Amino acid sequence: MTNQIRLGVIGCGYWGPNLIRNFVEFPGSEVVAAADLDSSRLDTIKTRYNSIITTTHYPDLFDMHLDAVIVATPPATHYAIGRDCLEHGLHTLVEKPMTLNRLDAERLVDLAAQKGLILMVGHTFEYNAAVRTLRQIIASGTLGDIYYVDAIRVNLGLFQRHSNVIWDLAPHDISILRYILGAEPVQVSANGSAHILPNVVDLAYINLEFPNNITAHVHVSWLNPSKVRQITVVGSQKMLVYDDVEPLEKIRIYDKGVDKLPYTESFGDFQLSYRYGDITIPHINFTEPLRNECQHFVESIIHGTQPQSSGYVGLQVVKILEMAEQSLNGAAMQEKPNGYITVHNQ
Ligand SMILES: NC(=O)c1ccc[n+]([C@@H]2O[C@H](COP(=O)([O-])OP(=O)(O)OC[C@H]3O[C@@H](n4cnc5c(N)ncnc54)[C@H](O)[C@@H]3O)[C@@H](O)[C@H]2O)c1
Fold it and tell me: Quick one: pLDDT band at residue 158, thresholds 50, 70, 90?
């Protein structure tokens, strides 16, 4: 097929093969080449997709007349590899988190703008039909004024040696919160602890204050017996639970709440009335989020439009993660393991 976007994938560990499968299946793209330092990873790719050229030296991809690359290597390598790809004139999709610090993220955003290239970050949940439905429900006012959002993403492992649980798991929740609330947090703080590897935080609680007095909490852990991926949104009218582990009924809207009755002299106090109404389960037309994401990357290149999870969005999420980490470090330095150090957004 002509006019296909010619792609290379760098990093074929756990996630890279999922990206390759989706780009291979999408008619608008052709996966020309795959790179990984580990040749056994490439053997697996070659067994499944014989036509893909493989190499252990990713710069070989720069001589293959590609249009774009996907960087699915460990986060510590994203900046150097992403920069190299952009400098070689390639549209670039970098896995999450885009980089491990704000400065590097800004440099990638500036470089992409300078070169007129698409830079996108793999915030897969922004392409998840349940999260999109959640955003619509909040925007429609069905829940009333939003009081707070509680996000939990916990399981047992997989421990990363060169990053902590915040950089590994929280990019998803931070990107979801920004997306569903349509706003940036004005204040970020965090606390957490390292139980298994020295100085590698494996449990963290991040607190975010959004405009309109909306509070959000993100609980991430590699040390939990159960796999939980749940977001609760509590509003003045209704409450909602999004359970990503649930195969079909991912969102439940509860007509539950507490109303304060007018002050009465006879009681000398405020009376509270509790509502216990119906539960609604919206129908969600679910397609694989990664497939939507891959398709969106190719279409953004074809139409020359900024993707939903653009480099700028990647930068905003990195800034928030960095603030959470500074807050953690501040707490550690002051030997206040349970105290919150607040970091103000600029
Ligand atoms: N969007 C999502 O839902 C999602 C899910 C899982 C992982 N990820 C992200 O994908 C990225 C990769 O994660 P993973 O779990 O696949 O890690 P992984 O360790 O399983 O795989 C990374 C691969 O990159 C290769 N690699 C490292 N440096 C390289 C280099 N210089 N050149 C070529 N190859 C190199 C390694 O050999 C390895 O095979 C991470 O950024 C992670 O956060 C995203």
Answer: confident
Tell me: pLDDT of 336 over 90: no
User: Is residue 16 within 6 Å of ligand 1 at its C-beta?
Assistant: yes
With 0.85 as the threshold, say if the pTM is over it: yes
Cβ(54) – ligand 1 distance below 6 Å:
no
- The CA distance from 220 to 316, in Å, is 19
Determine the distance separating the centroid of ligand 1 and the alpha carbon of 13, expressed in angstroms. 5
| Phi, psi (rounded to 5 degrees) for 272 | -110, 140
**Percent of the chain at pLDDT exceeding 90:** 84
Read off the tokens for 212: 């309109």
Query: Any idea which residue has 């977001």 for tokens?
Result: 231
Q: How far is CA 220 from the centre of its chain?
A: 13
199 Cβ contact partners less than 8 Å away, ≥ 6 residues apart: none
Please state, rounded to an integer, the average pLDDT across all residues of the chain. 92
Backbone angles phi, psi at 200, to 5 degrees: -105, 105
Please tell me what DSSP assigns to residue 13: S
Would you say the CB of residue 80 lies under 6 angstroms from ligand 1? no
**Is the distance from the beta carbon of residue 169 to the nearest atom of ligand 1 less than 6 Å?**
no
List the residue whose alpha carbon is closest to atom 18 of ligand 1.
Answer: 13
CB of 35 closer than 6 angstroms to any ligand 1 atom? yes
pLDDT band, residue 342 (cuts 50/70/90): very low
Handedness of CA 294, 322, 35, 158 (dihedral sign): negative
**CA distance linking residue 323 with residue 344, whole number of Å:** 8
What is the spatial distance between Cα 211 and Cα 222, in angstroms, rounded to a whole number?
30
Distance of CA 49 to the CA centre of its chain: 29
